[in-house]
Design a protein that fits this description.
133 residues, alpha/beta, 3-stranded parallel β-sheet
């Protein structure tokens, strides 16, 4: 297995040659070898080179949540990019999921998402299940 540094060097060489297919392949290989937040950020930093050269389907996702989800967003965006999806993520306010879902003027609706992810802890949405009552 190649080291991360070697793979990144190969990605840079593919960029210099404008070999976008090879670059895309190498980014997938880098993720398969080291699926970490650092690799996700690296993939996202190289994503700009792919736009216009590799077919990417745009997708807007909104996240209504009751807990901190921000650390996962770059991971989701990187994996989506490697699957051919140019993912834009709108994270709604902390613990405002009920208001966001019910108010047609909320940031959730204003962002016109293609996908809505409801990330709510069981204890927040159904406390009787959480507490065992």
């Amino acid at each position: 297995m190649k080291s991360t540094a070697v793979m990144r060097d190969q990605v840079e060489h593919a960029i210099a040659r404008q070999d976008w297919g090879e670059m895309y392949y190498l980014l997938r290989a880098a993720w398969a070898a080291d699926a970490t937040p650092a690799t996700a950020n690296y993939i996202l930093s190289k994503g700009e080179y792919l736009r216009g050269h590799v077919s990417l389907s745009p997708c807007r996702m909104a996240v209504a949540r009751s807990f901190t989800i921000e650390p996962v967003v770059p991971l989701c965006r990187a994996v989506a990019l490697l699957k051919g999806i140019d993912l834009t993520v709108q994270v709604c306010g902390f613990n405002t999921y009920a208001q966001d879902l019910l108010d047609a003027q909320s940031p959730l609706y204003q962002s016109s998402p293609d996908v809505v992810l409801l990330a709510v802890q069981t204890r927040d949405i159904a406390p009787e299940l959480w507490s065992g009552i």
